[in-house]
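Hello again, I could really use a second opinion on something today. For a while now I've been wondering how a particular protein folds. Please have a think about how the structure follows from the sequence. Here's the protein in full, and shout if anything looks odd to you:

***
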Amino acid sequence: MPEPYYPIASLWRFDGTVSRQTYALVGFIGFAIKHNIDCYVARDYLYGIHGLLNYWAPLSKAARLEHLSNGEKQFLFNLVLVSLPFIYIGVNLTVRRLRDAALPLWLVCLFFTPFVNVLFFLVLCLVPSKHHEPSDEAAPWPRVRPLDRFIPRGAMASSMLSIGITTLIGLVCLSLSTLVIGSYGWSLFIALPFCMGLFAVLLHSYHEPRTFESCLEVSVMPILILAVILLAVAIEGVICLMMAAPIALVLALLGGSIGFAIQLHYWDTHYKPAMLAVILFVLPFAFFGEHAAALKPPDFVVHSAVEISAPPEAVWRQVIAFSEIPPPQELLFRAGVAYPIRAEISGSGVGATRLCIFSTGPFEEPITDWDEPHLLKFSVSKNPAPLNELSPYKNIHAPHLYGYFISHGGQFLLTALPGGRTRLEGTTWYQHNMWPATYWSWWSNYVIHRIHMRVLNHIRDRAESETPQAVATAADSKTR
């Protein structure tokens, strides 16, 4: 005698499939039940859950765990506790719906992605069941999907189309991130190049598998063309594009390699449009999600030092206000990176204001510690642009030139050495609002170190040239 079938009991089983109608019905009913339960829980804690967005910010503010009160922590704990059975049922049904639609089961990860999971749910409610559709071979006439007519079958034509569409997608997403949202973060420098490489290869191989070499070429070309467009329309300069190129190209190649593996082993005609759509819709949600997260930029510090054949008293006079430095010979500064020219000071002691004049404008540095001739420490109240973009155009005003690199303070530490010499160490504390923070700190640390050395070497030369003892020491060392 067959075992009776109980629909409610099947909600707890991971085997089998579920139709899109059942998936949508249970999903909407489950959301309605959970919403009412959450409202009841929130009422006891004086919080309101009035709409969908409250589920991503139930406290109605950008709260961090370490700043929550005991009542807020208990409220969130109860929300999570109530959510557990609904999460189980949701994952259960999503896995079975993916299996029913012949989609890869790893897509269940999107169930836990804020904002994206709503779109993911709607897509699964619309994707037809593979088990209830006649196959292409059994159909009385050829089944033609919209994309089948749009995408050419030839290798050259499909590669050109995929490169063009992917470049356009990259330009739209980059404009959304930098000009609309004002974010230079993980989504821009990690998710975008990876998804561009993946999307380009999957679109290129829509009709049939392509070679590994052609997939890598297709994955990289949109990044290169996008860089040329940004340079041509005066959005970015050469220096910033060169800094972003290593990480962008590597991630595009990684996305292209994964796309090659997918099209070689797992590319099925029934879910090609769905996967391409998922990649497209993930990007804007990633940009807005990262912006809503409001990541706090880390602090960085750079130390540089030189030894000077002059006593600390002579070095100190050059530290507080040094004369104009000769024009730079380094390619880094000649290409447009801001470089120091001279330093001026108004007053003396704590409260004085030091101006360090750069090629892009002055740093205003109020003095916070004045321990003559040992320590000069200052904060920074005004930051000029970090560089003048190298570009065919005269002036480039990229958004990241203003407010994304911020120096908070610096100091000069003078240490007396035997023989009337001085060790001079320069330090800068700074932040930048660009992610991955570690990657961009490699560039910024190097640039700041080169700026330090330009100043320290100039101070050394001036102090040694104005100190008779230093001259005698230098002459004696030459005779030896």
Observations:
- Residues 1-9, 46-53, 55-66, 132-144 have pLDDT under 50 and may be disordered.
